[in-house]
Amino acid sequence: MPPFVTLPDLALRTLGGSVVAASDESFAEKESLIRPGRPGFQAETFGSKGQVYDGWETRRRRSPGHDWALVRLGIPGVIRGVVIDTAWFKGNYPPYASVEAAAVEGHPSPAELAVASWVEIVPRAELKGDVEHAFAVTDSRRFTHVRLNIFPDGGVARLRVHGEARPDLSVYEGLGLDLAALANGGLVTACSNEFYSSPNNVLAPGLARHQAEGWETARRRDGGNDWLVIRLAGPGMIRLAEIDTTNLLFNAPGAVSLTGLVDGEREVGLLPSTPLQPDTPHRFRLHHADPVTHVRVDIHPDGGLARVRLHGHLVTP
């Protein structure tokens, strides 16, 4: 798969995405398009509408036109690539698809979105059954919604919309926020090891339900330590750090330290090496005089974290 798949899936349901409308969902529900995880399948499992699919499937179209699904991104942003996954759809996949995007602020209804200005970001392309199709996107504008068009009908298991978050942070003016959160524009830009799971998981909303929803490294044997670097939503002053090892029972780090970076270079000490406990949310008050743009999280020597929260205030340059 291309490099863009390492970026967050802006449409993911667990990041707040929603399939707000679809032309048809006779065989399988539209909400499946943005579920986390790989699509599942069990042969010869029939419901009242036929074989059960973990995806979105429309009826056989007998009229002109094509089917479509309209997705509100959980996090608005710049889309770098799209994955259209037809997993398990082998005799009922759409032969072609395209993707459009729009930027509509506020809380538009499906009717308002229908008349919005849409831009084609993935031209009509041929699809195959039971395949992940990856399409790079070159348009660098910020979008809030996407529309998947399938020609003429059929089933798609998942739609992944990978990109860089560009949320509207003006709503936090004068207020504190989690400067590290994916939803606010935070992003892991470097990481020593991601053997078991993605480091961006630690910036996801909500609580991790199990180990796979956090970040976990391989066992380190060289005497060093693992780390990740978080680009904050913007330059800011961090006043509270939450380091959560929930679900990490026998593989939590022994300790953690935090170092602020100014434009990725000059270091600002935030938290010296501090012991951690397994399966525990830890909260540390921080005191520093200079705003930082990035934070390096060092875990000693290795292990996993469920979540990292860095609460503070944006600082206007």
From TrEMBL:
Species: Nonomuraea helvata
Coiled coil: none
Molecular function via GO: allantoicase activity
InterPro entries reported in the protein's UniProt record: Allantoicase, Allantoicase_dom, Galactose-bd-like_sf
Pathway this chain belongs to: Nitrogen metabolism; (S)-allantoin degradation; (S)-ureidoglycolate from allantoate (aminidohydrolase route): step 1/1
Lineage: Bacteria, Bacillati, Actinomycetota, Actinomycetes, Streptosporangiales
Keyword Ribosomal protein: no
Signal peptide (from-to): none
Keywords recorded for this protein, A-Z: Hydrolase, Purine metabolism
Catalytic activity: allantoate + H2O = (S)-ureidoglycolate + urea
This enzyme's EC code(s): 3.5.3.4
SUPFAM superfamilies: Galactose-binding domain-like
All residue ranges annotated as the Allantoicase domain in the record: 16-165, 185-314
Family, per entry: Belongs to the allantoicase family.
Protein name: Probable allantoicase
